[in-house]
Design brief:
8-stranded parallel sheet; 10 strands; about 15% strand; binds zinc ion
Length: about 300
């Protein structure tokens, strides 16, 4: 039996070396971002980071479908003010406490000094993928100066999980960096790429073209039952020719909102409390094939 892996849940940390700027804390108050809206975060209370992990762990453990989730660190911009940073070793330590259900998702920006060495270190420490959020890390991933970085990722067998589309939760420097076509270089280099959020809201068509053109490019479904993305999830459900390139990710603590997906989905999920299960049932009901739930394990070579 294959493992059902959720490739995308977010870690957070207040204390150094992690960082959340005052502006970012204010920004969280304006977003509807699940657990992060708990009052501890706006008070910058260190206990909030543990409460956040407890809630994630409880959700994954309580899921009827998901076996394991990848907990993601978050690298920072290296040429701009840092608003949000989650250190790799910090996230790794938290993953190690719950090894039966969490996997380590490292975040190494190619703009980081000694980035290639950091990729090797992350791999040695058990990272199953590398996550980037170029809009907020202020990196143009099409820059040829990153070619050797992509070569290293391919050689290490580290897939790239990359946020695509505009970014609404972490302060962004340039939302144009969420354009999936900027990943052509990395795709040509043979890196396995998961385009998180399928480029929505702006770049769904580009994502579909990339998935069709490159055998090593996939579409990740994180946080797509949300107000800015739900209409694109519905059109993706109709677009069956790319279903064999989609892979499940939840994007927790971004919570699914089943009412956005129609009366049938609302009815089918109304008694389900676990947000992972709500999202899984919604996707099944929308007609996405079961394969999307097991593709993550394949891409991470864990099946
Ligand atoms: Zn994310």
């Amino acid at each position: 039996m294959s493992l059902f892996i959720d490739l995308h849940i977010h870690d957070i940390g207040h204390e150094a070396p992690n960082h959340i700027s005052a502006e970012q804390l204010d920004y969280f108050k304006t977003t509807d971002f699940g657990y992060l809206c708990n009052p501890c975060f706006s008070r910058n209370d260190l206990g909030a980071q543990d409460k956040h992990l407890d809630e994630l762990v409880e959700t994954v453990k309580g899921s009827e479908f998901v076996d394991k989730s990848v907990l993601l660190a978050m690298d920072k911009p290296y040429d701009k003010k840092v608003h949000f940073y989650v250190d790799n070793d910090y996230t790794l330590e938290r993953v190690e406490k719950f090894q039966d259900i969490l996997l380590f998702g490292a975040s190494v920006s190619p703009a980081r000094p000694n980035a290639i060495k950091a990729l090797h270190v992350a791999k040695e420490k058990g990272a199953v993928l590398n996550k980037l959020l170029p809009n907020s890390q202020n990196i143009n991933l099409s820059d040829p100066k990153y070619d050797s970085f992509w070569d290293t990722m391919r050689e290490l067998g580290l897939p790239l999980l990359v946020h695509t589309g505009s970014q609404h939760t972490i302060i962004a420097y340039d939302n144009k960096y969420g354009d999936p076509s900027l990943l052509k270089n990395a795709a040509d280099k043979g890196v396995t790429i998961i385009l998180s959020h399928c480029g929505t809201p702006e770049y769904l068509n580009t994502t579909i073209e990339m998935m069709k053109h490159y055998s090593n490019v996939y579409g990740g479904m994180a946080a797509m039952a949300r107000p800015s993305r739900s209409e694109f999830l519905l059109s993706l459900a109709e677009n069956t020719e790319v279903h064999n390139k989609l892979v499940f990710e939840s994007g927790l603590p971004a919570m699914p909102v089943p009412s956005l997906l129609g009366q049938d989905i609302l009815e089918a999920t109304k008694d389900i409390k676990n947000p992972l299960d709500v999202y899984c049932i919604a996707l099944k009901k929308l007609g996405f094939p079961e394969d999307i739930f097991y593709r993550g394990a394949e891409l991470l070579n864990l099946s």
